[in-house]
Amino acid sequence: LSEFGEENVTVLTMEENAGYKLFETYNDKVRKISYVFPFLFVGICALINLITVSRLMKDERKEIGCYFSLGISRRKIIFKFTLFSFLSVGLGCLAGYLIGTPILPFVVEDAYKSIFNFGAFKATLINTLGMAIGFGITLLSILITIYISTLYLKEEPSNLLKEISPKPGKKILLEKINWLWNKISFSWKSSFRNIFRQKKNLVLTMLSIFLSTGL
Fold first, then answer.
1. Half-sphere exposure of 7 (CA within 13 A, CB side)
2. Which of the listed residues 31, 39, 46, 143 has the most CB atoms within 10 Å of its CB?
3. DSSP 3-state helix, strand, coil percentages of the chain (rounded to 5)?
4. Buried b (16+ CB within 10 A) or exposed e, 15-25
5. Sign of the torsion angle spanned by Cα atoms 94, 98, 102, 108
């Protein structure tokens, strides 16, 4: 210190070091992201399950009507689709945990090592948290499946054996504005009609984009 002069030397503690502060900042960001990620993924899984089960029930509508006609109870029919949902979601969660969990920490490590220089990286997996998230996703998927199945099974067998009648055509709000509607091309008119007439698909698409963008 005497060689440089005390007035030319600044002593910093570890907490005051710029590199350490930057490391703490990145850690804080990753920690906050880790709190949000599970909820976003659970939401995406729920949407995927909702769309898949709805499509499956729609495709097997006649088979469900046949089951009813043969005297098979609602409980057994619901159990069939619930089992499908349980196996698909459960196996997906298990595969994601066994494959993704060991890989993801090292991806984060590579990102950190591009900025910082530190020793060997040791990942500590919290098995209880992974099991809780997997259980939550599976339970939510089962509840969604039971709900959708119950809605379908409210119909009479004779109705289930029939094809679904197309929805009656209705004018959308934009069509009532004649001066604007007449200037729109036919392809755009079809797009607007599909968007506003199929509200369920519109909501699901918007939610999917919202959650994916949030990631």
1. 0
2. 46
3. 75, 0, 25
4. eeeeeeeeeee
5. negative
Task: Give the DSSP letter string of 109-150.
Answer: HHHHHTT---S-------HHHHHHHHHHHHHHHHHHHHHHHH
Its pTM stands at 0.66
Q: Is the pLDDT of residue 2 over 70?
A: no
- Is the pLDDT at 25 greater than 60, yes or no? yes
Round to whole Å and give the CA distance between 140 and 49: 9
The number of helices, as runs of H, and strands, as runs of E, in the chain is 9, 0
The two structure tokens encoding residue 64? 């469900």
Separation CA 118–CA 23 (nearest Å): 11
Mean pLDDT of all residues in 56-68: 83
The residues near 79 (Cβ < 8 Å, ≥ 6 apart) are none
Closest-CA residue to 36 (of 209, 207, 215):
215
Report the distance separating Cα 61 and Cα 50, nearest Å. Answer: 16
122 conformational bin, left if phi > 0, alpha if psi -120 to 50, beta if neither: beta
* Beta carbons of 121 and 105 less than 8 angstroms apart: yes
